[in-house]
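Attaching the record inline, Q. Sequence:
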Amino acid sequence: MDEAGRGPLAGPVVASAVSLRAFPSDVLIDDSKRLTPRQREDAFRVICRVADWGLGIVEPEVIDRIGIHAATLEAMRRALLALPQRPRWAVIDGPWIPPRFPVRALPVVGGDGKSLSVACASIVAKVVRDRFMTKLHRLLPEYGFIRHKGYGTPEHLNLLKGIGPSSFHRYSFRGVAFVG
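Structure, as predicted:
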């Protein structure tokens, strides 16, 4: 299991749980942050063929209400529950196990660089979140989400100062709270 979108100022946090049925061959699998967008998309297509996966998505208004840490753990719990078949245990990227987690879990700091299935989960979460932000860009092109995916880049921060936040922004995050 892994997540994408803890740090951005806009959009959901997305977690993925991946259960491999076969080895994802003929494609580069690594921590999603180490891959180019093209490499992630190529890997995503292969992972979809050789794995079962589940997603957990927590929207900005929930992030604002419960905080990003709790929202991330909730997204992970939801991702596990979304798998077609519940595993006996899970390897989770990071030092925490979500509360009310329905299976035994092993938290591994840097797991996306140490475990093939966690790296696959990293890729799935990142690709799904990036695709969401690309669709959001079509709805709200004035924010430039296609370029920064909601992260607090200088461009995004300047846009927030000029036009203010959207309903997809995290109002509790620094950078949004001061302009909202």
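The first strand starts at residue 2 and ends at 4. Helices lie at 37-50, 60-66, 68-82, 116-139, 145-148, 154-163.

More tomorrow.
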